[in-house]
Structure formats: C-alpha cells, structure tokens
Amino acid sequence: MNECIFCRIIKGQILAHKLYENDNVFVFLDINPYTRGHTLVIPKKHYQDIFDIPDKELEILIKEVKKVAELQRDKLKVKDINIFQRNGLLAGQEVDHIHFHVVPRYENDEVEMLPRGQYTGKDFEEVIKLLTR
Ligand code: 5GP
Ligand code: ZN
Predict the structure, then answer these.
(1) Where does the pLDDT of residue 113 fall: very low under 50, low under 70, confident under 90, or very high at 90 and above?
(2) What pLDDT band is residue 2 in, cutting at 50, 70 and 90?
(3) Which is catalytic among the residues 17, 46, 99, 101?
(4) CA-wise closest residue to 35 among 74, 70, 83
(5) Model-level pTM?
(6) Residues near ligand 2 ion, CB 5 Å cutoff
(7) Ligand 1, closest atom to CA 34?
(8) Which ligand does the CA of 43 lie closest to?
C-alpha cells in the first residue's frame, strides 16, 4: 500500500529529524529547508488539507505552530519567521498530509516567497463582490 510519507515518518518507518512529539502533533525538520531550522508541524492523524481537518484539531495544530515559532525565536535567536501552509496541486502541496511550515528568517537569507501581481480592469471590484461577506 502507498501510505502517506508523513504518516510513515510519524510511525518511525522513514527517518526524519524529530524535534518533539505529543499526543496530537509531530514536529520535525524539513529535509530541504528554505532556511536553517525550517520546521514542519503536522497532526498525528492524517488529514489532507485545511478543508479536511476538523476545526478543533486545527486549533490544536496552530497553537503548536506558535510554540514552534517561539522555540525558534528563543533558541535560534531570530525575530522574523514565516508561517505558511499549502492546499492542493496548484498551491504546490507536495505531501497530502496537512502541514505548517515554520521558517526562521535571517538577514540576507535570499529566500523569495510568492511573487506579487496587480489587478486589472474590473477584476478588483469583482473579487471584492465575491469575497465580501
Ligand atoms: P509542501 O510543498 O507540501 O508544502 O511541503 C512538503 C515539504 O515536505 C517540503 O518542504 C519537503 O522538503 C518536505 N519533505 C518531503 N519529504 C520529506 C521527508 O521525507 N522528510 C522530511 N523531513 N521532509 C520532507
Ligand atoms: Zn498522512
């Protein structure tokens, strides 16, 4: 069976550098880091993405993400940290087990995040109409 790579990491079937775990989450270093200390925070239960995970479990997960950010701030002595999460192919999600990236930022680390664009024509108004609640 083709089991999810992160589920296999949690079970210890694939080696990963675990920082810590508890009943709910597993925290480990990304194998191809954006920067030194780039960490992944995942729930122990397999959920595909932000739509799949129940709110209660997401709450637990995001609180843990904050703890990891604090850990990086205190131990790596960084002030600036990116936190992000991808959903789906077009968003670049490579592993279908929800995960938050916690990426410490360093002076001149030369990591570029997503490029920005501009709205054209009536698109700005249309998007506002669609998304305003
Ligand atoms: P995504 O692109 O899905 O947001 O991020 C998946 C992340 O998982 C990537 O940053 C990638 O480097 C990391 N990754 C993929 N396979 C492994 C692995 O076997 N071990 C570890 N530690 N990280 C992995
Ligand atoms: Zn999984």
Answers:
(1) confident
(2) confident
(3) 99
(4) 83
(5) 0.96
(6) 4, 6-7, 46, 97
(7) 10
(8) 2
Helices (H), the chain: 5-10, 55-75, 123-131
Beta strands in the chain (DSSP E): 18-21, 25-29, 39-43, 80-84, 100-105
What are phi and psi for residue 132, nearest 5 degrees? -70, 130
CB-count burial class (<10 Å; 0-12, 13-18, 19+) for 90: exposed
63 burial class (0-12, 13-18, 19+ CB within 10 angstroms)?
Answer: exposed
Q: Is 99 a catalytic residue?
A: yes
Per-residue pLDDT averaged across 104-130, rounded?
95
CA-nearest of 11, 9, 45, 13 to 28 is: 9
Q: What is the mean pLDDT of residues 94-107?
A: 98
Ligand 1 atom 5 nearest Cα? 94
